[in-house]
Design goal:
Elements (H helix, E strand, L loop, with lengths): L2 H13 L6 E4 L4 E4 L1 E4 L13 H13 L4 E3 L9 H8 L9 E6 L7 H15 L4 E9 L1 H9 L2 H10 L3 E8 L3 H8 L6 E5 L10 H10 L3 E5 L12 H9 L6 H10 L4 E6 L4 H12 L8 H17 L19 H13 L6 H9 L12 H5 L6 H13 L1
Parallel strand pairs: 3-4, 3-10, 4-5, 5-6, 6-7, 7-8, 8-9, 9-10
Antiparallel strand pairs: 1-2
Helix pairs in contact: 1-11, 2-3, 3-4, 7-8, 9-12, 13-16
């Protein structure tokens, strides 16, 4: 976003006239801002822990300027995200938002664990209920485990006690698994990964459309592919700049999503105040008009350019961390992909810095703990070996 745009959004914020794009969750009668605050990438201090003062200030500023959807989860920031969100939503802010958190299915060993974990989360969030409560990161196998532990009975009890208002799920698997889960329970919301690159990946656009036909609201995660779409290579940036309508790469990425009629809210993991300001400006002028044919052609070209030059498609979610041997898998994968997107780019220097920290691929023992945790189902061990061989050649 150029300086004039930043000055414009700051003027809007100061004058208090921000009106974000909003829409209704079907079957729930709750209005939500199209921009949601995702609390997986909150600002950090020098010690690597959440900068609480900055995070609270950002969350409250977002709400004061029209954001009504806050998303967190049990494992985010090592379990600290929910606690910080709870602090941010004090002083009347809780009543102004739709609050979502998630049940860490991998931590559930018995039926009673579900309610125990929910109660722990409510205590950290300092509230007596959450609006949406999701089964976190479902795939076909994990969903079967939840069925075996009677998640439906848990939802019935939690709903009857008023601890949750609406059941939902977040998803990382293939399209057939998504359709099976979608039709198996009267969900009120599903959270899926979608962006310019992922139209035929995981749930896919067809899955989103099916959710819309069933009257299930769709919330989007990874709209910027872990930040990859915010910093495009030169040829992608040139394609955007040559288009008649001028938008920043981030705005182009969000526009791809907010024009989908099934999409209610798009989560953005904002880690600094400038990102929040930029996003507020984008959604302040957003509209749900359909994409033009020329815009569709542009997105197709952008997608093909990215995918032809990427290897791992890692989003940097860090579900693979901590590695038992300290391998910094997200740093390696995302650094490598970004090097491929640069003209003449090379990852040897970046890999060397990771090796100096004793966190490179040479420490991998192929235990595959990371692969079992990866929501993208990446062949992590193979990629590590290939990147190591290339960088050490």
């Amino acid at each position: 976003m150029v300086l004039s745009d930043r000055l414009h959004v700051r003027t809007i914020l100061l004058n208090g006239v921000m009106t974000l794009l909003k829409t209704m969750f079907p079957g729930v009668n709750r209005e939500s801002s199209a921009l949601g605050f995702g609390c997986m990438r909150l600002p950090l201090g020098e010690d690597g822990k959440i900068n609480e003062a900055e995070a609270i200030a950002m969350i409250r500023k977002a709400i004061d300027n029209g954001v009504t959807y806050i998303d967190t989860a049990y494992p985010y920031h090592g379990g600290e995200s929910e606690r910080v969100v709870g602090k941010a939503l004090k002083d009347g802010y809780r009543e102004r938002v739709i609050l979502t958190t998630k049940l860490p299915c991998w931590a559930v060993k018995t039926h009673d664990d579900m309610m125990r974990i929910l109660d722990e989360q409510l205590e950290k969030l300092q509230t007596d209920h959450v609006d949406f409560y999701l089964l976190h990161a479902l795939n076909a196998g994990r969903y079967q485990e939840m069925k075996n532990l009677d998640h439906m009975g848990f939802f019935e009890d939690a709903l009857a006690q008023g601890k949750i208002l609406y059941p939902g799920f977040s998803f990382h698997d293939d399209h057939p698994a998504f359709i099976e889960i979608l039709h198996d329970y009267p969900w009120k919301m599903c959270q899926v990964q979608m962006n310019v690159l992922d139209g035929d990946y995981q749930a896919g656009i067809e899955g989103i459309q099916e959710a819309g036909r069933l009257g299930i609201g769709v919330v989007i995660m990874e709209p910027l592919r872990g930040g990859l779409l915010a910093q495009p290579p030169a040829d992608v940036r040139a394609a955007y700049e040559a288009f008649a309508e001028q938008r920043s790469p981030v705005e182009w990425a969000f526009r791809y999503l907010y024009t989908m009629p099934e999409v209610i809210t798009i989560l953005s993991g904002m880690s600094e105040m400038g990102q929040l300001d930029d996003n507020l400006a984008i959604f302040n002028k957003a509209s749900r008009d359909e994409l033009t044919d020329s815009e569709k052609e542009l997105y197709t070209d952008i997608k093909n350019t990215y995918l032809s030059r990427m290897k791992t498609r890692c989003t940097g979610c860090a579900y693979c961390q901590p590695c038992p041997k300290g391998v910094k898998i997200p740093d390696i994968f995302r650094g490598y992909d970004r090097s491929l997107l640069r003209e003449g780019g090379c990852f040897k220097e970046g890999y060397g810095k990771i090796a100096a920290e004793q966190a490179d691929a040479s420490r991998c023992i192929a235990c595959r703990k990371c692969e079992r945790s990866c929501p993208q189902h990446l062949p992590i061990v193979r990629y590590l070996q290939e990147i190591r061989a290339e960088c050490e050649a």
